[in-house]
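Notes from hallway chat w/ T.B., transcribed later so I don't forget. T.B. wanted the structure written out for a chain they're using in a teaching module, and asked if we could keep both sequence and structure tokens in one place. Agreed to drop them here.
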Amino acid sequence: MAFNLKGRSLLTLRDYTPEEIRFLLDISRQAKQERRAGVIQQRFQGKTLAMLFEKRSTRTRCAFETAFGEEGGHPVFLSMADIQLGSKESVEDTARVLGRMFDAIEFRGFKQETVETLAKYSGVPVYNGLTDLYHPTQILADLMTVEEEFGGLRGIRIVYCGDGRNNVANSLMIGSAKMGLHYVLASPKELWPAEDLVAACREYAAPTGATITITDRMEEAIPGAQAIYTDVWVSMGEEAKAQERLKLLAPYQVNAAAMAATGLPETIFLHCLPAVKGQEVTVDVIDGPRSRCWDEAENRKHTIKAIMLATI
């Protein structure tokens, strides 16, 4: 089923229905097939994309830039050293100007409020490439990777280990609930997600058959997991809390014992990257045969291309 998403922003997956997410995943699969077959399209010819970055990036920047460029469009990278955003010029005024010059805007930075303001005042689609609260483009790639591995999404048990209230964990819970995956969080209670978000996700889960389970016990979370997911223990901007986080999260490391404890030989390992090998995950797991991190990283490109194809 096709949906008319032209002009829509992607600020959080909370704004998208399960059917719309499915539509984006179907386009992603098509884009990947075209890329693998060497089919060259020029669907963004004559179009421009502003890429605003407050935070450094490998996958997000490369995915947006190459996906847009391959389709004949012109992406323009703008760091905070390049423009006046939030310093000499308000976010509202920056949005108004960029909306007059570009067909779409990508933002990667700190405050969710910034990307929402860009969307409100620019008049063009705005894409959240990561904020402190959400990381929706990452989760589309995660869902695509799980579906490639298992042939579907509904009923898959995905366990996230570590910092349970960071942007990836928040968005993975939302995406899982909307697409029918059983989301399990193994995290110290100090790092559990906001109660209102959990409540919202349980509402999203009701019609899809998904479940939301939150525990501080790895031994309760891991058995039966078909996918185990983790992220860095110290998020960007929280470096001052590094020692505290390392101590708090050490019991939640994904290692060979954790993978074996699922009881399933088909369990895959996922990580949004970059990884600190030896902290949240051991080398033998992330570089091992059950790791799908590199497929996941590649799928950032195909899913981001799909978002732009659907909305531009």
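Follow-up for T.B.: The mean pLDDT is 96. Might be a good example for the class.
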